[in-house]
Amino acid sequence: MTAATTFPRGGAAAKITATTTATAPSSTISPSIILKSFLQTIADARSHLAAAAAARAVSIFGMYPVDTIKTRMQMKQGDAFRLSGLYKGCAGSLVGQVPYGVLTFGSYEIYKQALLNKFPNTKPAFIYALSAILGDVTGSGWLCPSEVMKQQLQAGLYPSMSEAIKGIWSKSGIAGFYQGFTGGLARDVPFRVAQLTMFEMTKSLYLKAKNKGRSEDDNVALSAVEAAVCGAAAGSFSAAITNPLDRIKTLMMTDTTNAYGGSVVACASKILKEEGIGGLFAGVAPRVGYIAPSVCIFFVTYEFVQQKMQKKE
Q: What is the DSSP letter of 123?
């Protein structure tokens, strides 16, 4: 049995336990073995994944207006708080985000097992962090098209999902759906590293304070609620420090005229030149404000669905 703490993009942390099939050393891994391991991982964790999928969907839907406001602010639109269009692109976001959770979890387990086999003397914490990053990169291949459509709809560039698909395809073909892919990775990898690091630091400090005065035998671990609180704190901090990268990603995904140069460096340079350092932090308030409520919604929904499923079993 292997246990891990996963952090969905909304910042929610959920403790998961999954049985994984032993994987052969990396030098002998074949595509069929990888696929079999992936499917077995998904099957073994189906209860968790079903609850996590429901929780992810509810948290995304509940906090979607805040995400839309953030996108408008990052694009410097005049009336970012207007009520019309707050849920534009939500359906596409759910189509992208929910399967993304399954894909990242399954690939995370495969990367983790392969790396542990390949580097048995490496600290497990490093392997877990690297596996989580690789899982994010793998999942981004699925997620990016829905993110492009979502953000262009949030920005008001298209009136509907069908029009967005037609418009993006007619302008750029399949490449149009991966516009800003590098910007997404440039945001997500540092965010993941910062989030995992801050979670471990927050958890360590909290446990140190909680166990102060106790003997080693009486030490207590984090409860699920406490883990969620630590995850919210870590996610909020990580969201703030990676906001510049999030704004770059937003502008790259909504740049239909190549005004920002099509690369992370070119986009960052243009922002700094025209808006100064403050321009990199446009939309930071709703981005940070999105995290803590998202964690609460995710956690409550996850626990509710898990309990319902356990009763049926």
A: -
Query: d(Cα 82, Cα 72) in Å, to the nearest integer?
Result: 10
Range name among 10-14, 157-161, 300-304 with the lowest pLDDT average = 10-14
Name the phi and psi angles at 50, rounded to 5: -65, -45
| Residue 232 burial (C-beta neighbours within 10 Å; 0-12, 13-18, 19+) | buried
236: CB partners within 8 A, 6+ apart: 11, 288, 291, 292
Q: Would the pLDDT of 24 be above 80?
A: no
Q: What number is the average pLDDT over the span 23-43?
A: 70
Can you tell me the distance from the alpha carbon of 158 to that of 1, in angstroms, rounded to the nearest whole number? 47
Residue 12: pLDDT over 60:
no
**Please, which residues bridge with residue 4 across strands?**
16
Per residue in 122-142, pLDDT (tens digit) is 988 889 889 989 999 999 999
The answer to whether the beta carbons of residues 14 and 230 sit under 8 Å apart is: no
What residue has token string 């703490």? 5
Q: How far apart (Å, rounded) are the C-alpha atoms in residues 96 and 144?
A: 8
Q: Which residue has the higher pLDDT, 234 or 27?
A: 234
Angle of helix 243-254 versus helix 264-275 axis, rounded to 10: 110
DSSP state of 83: S
SS3 179: coil
Cβ–Cβ under 8 Å, residues 128 and 119: no
Q: Across the chain, what does the average pLDDT equal?
A: 86
What pLDDT sits at residue 240? 96
How many CB atoms are located within 10 Å of the residue 267 CB? 24
Separation between Cα atoms, residue 18 and residue 41, nearest integer Å: 7
Task: Find the helix or strand (DSSP H, E) in which 285 lies.
Answer: helix 284-312
Burial class (CB in 10 A: 0-12, 13-18, 19+), 78: exposed
